[in-house]
# Entry
Amino acid sequence: MSIPLPLLISSAATHQALSADEAVELAAAFKALGDPVRLRLLSLIAAHEGGEACVCDLTGAFALSQPTISHHLKVLRDAGLVRSERRATWVYYRVRPEAIALLATVLVPGDAPLRSTCPPDGSDLPA
Amino acid sequence: MSIPLPLLISSAATHQALSADEAVELAAAFKALGDPVRLRLLSLIAAHEGGEACVCDLTGAFALSQPTISHHLKVLRDAGLVRSERRATWVYYRVRPEAIALLATVLVPGDAPLRSTCPPDGSDLPA
DNA sequence: GGTCAACATAGACGTGTGTCGATTCCGCTG
DNA sequence: CAGCGGAATCGACACACGTCTATGTTGACC
# Structure
């Protein structure tokens, strides 16, 4: 009975318009995605074997300097989209799926997905 | 057999890392979402009755000048996230659900959603 | 036709962002 | 300990972005 129309970009909990605070927080994450290099970095990390990649795996994929890649990784990490972990000489980056899933949920409210309609089973986001 | 891990930020069609061209296109859309005012605008439009709102409905929700709101609406329109239509004196804005859904699909590849696992029924994105 | 309201465009200004080269930090290994 | 390679930080610079005021454009109404 709720959800009168293809209601998008809503607060995941209430399915209402975003509050100013929610918007600020979410916009920071989307802003981090708003650069082609960072999108590809995220993609490369996710697609790399084991779901993680060290910086040396990533720098080669771009015609950019190592500090620039490092800067973009920092932006992604500050936005909460990736985690980093030092192991010996190398630093490994890994995607934080909860953060990505939250963004997707905001775009398409969970129990009214656009692409396929599942019977509501009450499952919620992991963590 | 495919999808070794929580594979995110992938090309919707191939489930592989994004190409440079895909990344440029998608980043432009995410960048448009990377501002709190634009996120709230999108949210307000989607939540408004009939799924559309005129500019006069939106300007009152912000402590910003009318030209600034107009500017943000133009950014959203240029990114393909909303449509605008003039009716008499007023211009009505409406969300383009396909565009939003595409972004969500990139974040969480369609047939391996994070939040609920549906039986694959082969349905694809509308339009 | 004149006037008014809704909305868009133009120009200006301060701040933020992406990139670089140079340097520094950290941990391994002779 | 010295040296080396991987990665982060620093400082600088050009450009993009968000906001404003002022002005233009469009359609309705007297």
Summary: The helical segments of chain A are 20-33, 36-47, 55-59, 66-78, 97-107. DSSP finds five helices and three strands in chain A. The domain at 20-107 of chain A is CATH 1.10.10.10 (Arc Repressor Mutant, subunit A). Residues 54-56, 59, 66-67, 69-71, 73-74, 86, 89-91 of chain A lie near DNA strand D (CB under 10 Å from a C1').
